[in-house]
Amino acid sequence: MNHNTAYTGKSTVYVGMDVHKNSFTLCCYTMESDKITYKQKIDPDYKSVLKYLESMRKVSGDDAEFLCGYEAGCLGFTLYHQLTNHNSRCAILAPTTMLVAKGKR
Prior knowledge:
Mean pLDDT: 86
CATH architecture: 2-Layer Sandwich
Helix content: 10-25%
Largest sheet: 5 strands, mixed
Low-confidence stretches: 1-7
Radius of gyration: 13 Å
């Protein structure tokens, strides 16, 4: 999936998702702020992710574009398909592409 798009004047909010069988932890990142914000632990359900995105839209504005991403693992493509079926952009990331900080990805 190619995420390089022409500049649209819209802010892109990257939503990192640490997904596990028992919970998901989500957070937002924008290039403008260069900070991780709005970290939240939620139930492991795509509907909870959609609610999180809806609440972040109120913070980021209606013109913000959201791009979710999670590390390939136990969920396979299930969450990807659930989110994209609800018009949310999502990418599955290979573990080898994740940044390593203090021994953690």
